[in-house]
Specification:
The chain contains 4 helices and no strands. The chain is mainly alpha-helical and 129 residues long. It is elongated.
């Protein structure tokens, strides 16, 4: 088995890896702070979703650059994780939002705080001729 760590990285690779790692960590932290600080669930749900997606993509770029330069071949294993997060985070967010909206509508049926469910218009009999 060959050793992956050959020696120190070139300066450009260290800088690029460091920048993307710090930017990814910053987006993850901003998403976490948004989860804690925003007042309602409907506002709170966006921050971690966007933060996690952008943070994972930046971390994936940092990982790919580091291991590609270190191993002298293209390293794209981290792309699979980033694609998985990019596909599942928005879908999960949509399901959570729909479930929360349904719960709010059931709890506050007569309240005007939650927008009403969309109702498909019934065709008017005079327009059908």
């Amino acid at each position: 088995m060959t050793d992956l760590i050959v020696g120190p990285l070139p300066l450009w690779a260290e800088v690029l890896t460091g920048i993307f790692a710090v930017v990814g960590a910053a987006f993850a932290a901003i998403g976490s702070f948004g989860l804690v600080r925003l007042p309602t669930f409907f506002r709170r749900i966006h921050a971690p979703t966007l933060g996690a997606t952008v943070g994972v993509w930046c971390t994936m770029i940092a990982t790919s650059v580091y291991f590609s330069v270190q191993g002298a071949s293209l390293f794209l294993h981290a792309v699979l994780i980033a694609i998985f997060v990019a596909l599942t985070a928005p879908v999960t967010t949509i399901f959570l939002m729909r479930a929360a909206l349904f719960r709010e509508r059931m709890n506050e049926l007569r309240s005007h705080k939650v927008p009403p469910a969309s109702v498909s218009p019934t065709p008017d009999k005079s327009e059908s001729r």
